[in-house]
Design brief:
- The chain is mainly alpha-helical.
- The protein has 3 helices and 2 strands, in the order αβαβα.
- The protein has helices spanning 3-22, 36-48, 63-75; strands at residues 29-31, 53-55.
- It is flat, with a radius of gyration of 14 Å.
Length: 79
């Protein structure tokens, strides 16, 4: 399996999962760490729930906060 087909499979499974729960959750939250994995999940969730909550935590001078801010702006969400 090549990278492209792996990504297609992942996208299919995640979209199926989100569609299954879309009607059950009216306002989900994402714990955003600033890493690539939580950022990808946040972008996928935005596709089905435009108004979701971003949760984050860390120390005031953490470099993670920089990436959380960047992702939040790109998502059009407050954190």
């Amino acid at each position: 399996m090549n990278l492209s087909s792996s990504l297609d499979s992942l996208n299919f499974v995640l979209n199926k999962l989100f569609l299954k729960y879309q009607s059950k959750f009216t306002g989900p939250a994402v714990l955003l760490s600033g890493g690539i994995d939580s950022t990808i999940i946040a972008f996928l969730i935005k596709k089905y729930w435009p108004n979701f909550t971003i949760l984050s935590f860390g120390t005031q001078n953490s470099s993670d906060l920089t990436y959380i801010k960047i992702a939040s702006v790109a998502l059009g969400q407050k954190y």
